[in-house]
Amino acid sequence: MGGDTDDSAHSSPSVEPSSELTLALIDFCGDGYDSLSTLLQVIHKERLISDPMLQTLLFVGLGGYIHFFSTHFNETSMVEESHIHAVGMVMKNPRVGNLVEQMMSQTIASKISEVVE
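Predicted structure:
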């Protein structure tokens, strides 16, 4: 999973991570990833989350982010680059795209109904 994609359009503006954030992410990759990954796998296996939106947010959003961040960080040791890569990969997932589209449609419908009233 090299950096063969341009993920910059899917990330927040480029901000240098603080040293505290960098250290927390490095610790997470070393100590927390396996535990969180196992927890998400068990929750999925046990079918504890049935709502499709929550499934997308938890498994594709959070699970995908930690997977892609950790994998890329272990290859490059670069926090900011790994974050950009992870966000870009999550945003490319069709379930995330559908969720964003639904949220945008709901927001637009809500604004239209406010104007009409």
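Summary: The chain is about 75% helix and 0% strand.
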